DNA sequence: TTTTACCCTATCGATTTAATAGGATAAATG
DNA sequence: CATTTATCCTATTAAATCGATAGGGTAAAA
């Protein structure tokens, strides 16, 4: 299941991608437009800022804005920051690899084999889809 | 994340697919071979039996066995019974569809658009992969 | 100096997950 | 027919995660 954090994060990024990058947008504006709890969204945008996606400005006229061109933001990076691993199981994860405790041989494991195929495909989609593709 | 229930379920099915279909295999045998908690595996096999994948036999010489040829068991059916929806979000699910409360228009939603692509791809893999493919 | 809006940490209730406990039922065996 | 074997079934629980909220701190603009 995709977490609401990720869902809301993508919606917020998409919202920002449709705006003028030089004009900061307030959390409250996005919150109301996208029907997202203000405080929850606040923490999500904070995460996105700390991870280099957003810039922010305090005080009157402040808010958040995209730091990069949407077409230079592949969904892999967004997903990894908000959702964590793209793979369904750690033993096939590129960035969050972990060995299964119960599995003596990964190469002989049916689950590993199947989930590797799924990960390859999903990864390709996320790599080839940028924020710009989602903001039309 | 793939649940351990699904992971263990697939491993157990794979194990059974490698055996003679006419000879029941005891839970304890699979549990030991695959390093799965016996009681947990018991409940998983029960689910698989109730959903038509396995047959069972009680008493001495009893155990579980596959009801169908592994090549006639696509992973879609296994995943749906053990894991639930294949889609990452209910609004793009075929079998477990639910509308998002916050989303006024699915067709204009970035998350919907992205997750639909992922679901299509993942579904294709699960449809084209059978238990036989995983049991080599 | 007041207002505005982001910054940051802590906490909480609800849900889900993985596992366990403990006995009931049915089939084979001697 | 009693005993052993192995599945059947329900309930419970500990831990983790999730979504959301609370509440005050900080910086910038007017």
Q: What can you tell me about this protein's structure?
A:
The structure is a homodimer of 136-residue chains. Chain A is mainly alpha-helical. The first copy, chain A, folds into 2 domains: 4-66, Orthogonal Bundle (Arc Repressor Mutant, subunit A); 70-134, no CATH class. Helices cover 49% and strands 6% of the residues of chain A. Chain A has 6 helices and 2 strands; from the N terminus they run αααββααα. The first copy, chain A, has helices at residues 4-17, 27-34, 38-50, 75-82, 110-128, 131-134; strands spanning 54-57, 63-66. Chain A has a two-stranded antiparallel sheet with strand order 1-2. In chain A, a hairpin with a 5-residue loop joins strand 1 and strand 2. In chain A, helix 1 packs across helix 3 and helix 2 (27-34) crosses helix 3. Chain A is elongated and about 60 Å long. Chains A and B meet through helix 1 and helix 5 of A and helix 1 and helix 5 of B. Chain B binds a DNA duplex (30 and 30 nucleotides) through residues 3-5, 24, 26-28, 37, 39-40, 42-43, 45-46, 49, 56-64.
Largest sheet of chain A: 2 strands, antiparallel
Radius of gyration of chain A: 17 Å
Oligomer: homodimer
Strand content of chain A: 5-15%
Task: Give the total of beta strands of chain A.
Answer: 2
List key phrases describing it.
homodimer, 136 residues, mainly alpha, Arc Repressor Mutant, subunit A, 2 domains, two-stranded antiparallel ribbon, 6 helices, 49% helix, DNA-binding
């Amino acid at each position: 299941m995709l977490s609401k954090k990720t869902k809301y994060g993508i919606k917020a990024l998409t919202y920002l991608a449709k705006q003028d990058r030089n004009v900061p947008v307030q959390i409250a504006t996005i919150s109301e437009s996208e029907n997202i709890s203000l405080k929850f969204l606040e923490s999500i945008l904070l995460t996105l800022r700390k991870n280099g996606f957003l810039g922010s400005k305090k005080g009157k006229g402040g808010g958040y804005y995209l730091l990069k061109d949407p077409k230079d933001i592949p969904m892999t990076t967004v997903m990894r920051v908000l959702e964590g691993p793209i793979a369904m199981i750690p033993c096939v994860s590129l960035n969050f690899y972990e060995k299964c405790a119960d599995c003596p041989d990964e190469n002989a494991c049916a689950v590993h084999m199947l989930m590797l195929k799924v990960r390859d495909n999903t990864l390709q989609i996320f790599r080839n889809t940028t924020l710009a593709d989602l903001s039309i």
